[in-house]
Amino acid sequence: MRPDHWEENSRLVDALCCWPGGSFGVCRYKLLGAVDTRRYPHAENRVWSDQEDHEERGRRIVRQALVDPTVTRSTIRADVGVAIVPQTISRHLAEANLKSKRPFRALPSTPEHRQLCLQWGQARSMWNVTDWPKVVFSDESRFVWGTDDNRVRVWRRPGERYNPPPVLRHTAHTAGVMVWETIAYDSRSPLIVMRGTLTGQHYVDDILRPHVGPFLNGLSGAIFQQDNARPHTARVAQNFLRHCQTLPWPARSPDLSPVEHVWDQLKRQMPSCHSLHDLELSVQDLWAHLPLDNIRCLINSMPDRVAACIAAGGGPTRY
């Protein structure tokens, strides 16, 4: 650990010192920007080997990931202050059994929510891969221009998946576009860009009447699914859907919906955009080129999702 690598804090650390005459001993250094040579007079002439320097740098990298699990490799590289490639940072973290993972996210739920979700799963425990393809899944999602907090990853050790995620702070409102879509086993709707605030009446006028109605009419025996967002449960929306077969959906259970994974796939592929117009065009292009086999695979996973819901007692699942 060379002087230009010492941290400016008052933490005490043990370091191996080479004493005159070739003997070794353990010194306790107080890092205040320099070694206290009054207490450790021989530390002034301390010679640090490349191996010790490497190990100290590795400890510093690991310490940063433990203090702030959302820290990025570029931030670590800047803080270390020496030329170091991302692969070296990853190797140090891997040696400490730390891997980059998506934080486990689950909406807070009450015992009542979990009980209702469990009952929903039990009622559909016998549905199989011939039943779920009849369901038309729908959802909205927001694509932002710039960094998306939903894409943040955290450094985790094995067994820490369910640790509480770190607080993700928004410094300002992020511009973006809100889009809506439906998926079915053999088809999908156009991707609709939603302008302004979505109300129950706008949901009927801009989504249900021009898109959902014709889409369901083209599918024999289709069952329409939507979550419990306020525009969806508004009386005007429920009145429009009264002649359609709908699938009741448990509250606070996004992990059950295959559409959430469609959004995830699209956001993983999002290129850098220079304007909201570019963002909108990119989302539309990604949606148009999403393989139908991906959608079928997600819908085929519904029996497993239901089984996981039951096994979790109506609580959050690994999906």
UniProtKB/TrEMBL annotation:
InterPro entries, alphabetically?
RNaseH_sf, Tc1-like_DDE_dom, Transposase_5
Q: Which Gene3D superfamilies match?
A: Ribonuclease H-like superfamily/Ribonuclease H
Query: Which residue numbers delimit the Tc1-like transposase DDE domain?
Result: 135-276
For this protein, what is any one GO molecular function term?
A: nucleic acid binding
One Pfam family hit: DDE_3
Domain of life, per lineage: Eukaryota
Listed name of the protein: Transposable element Tcb2 transposase
Species lineage: Eukaryota, Metazoa, Ecdysozoa, Arthropoda, Chelicerata
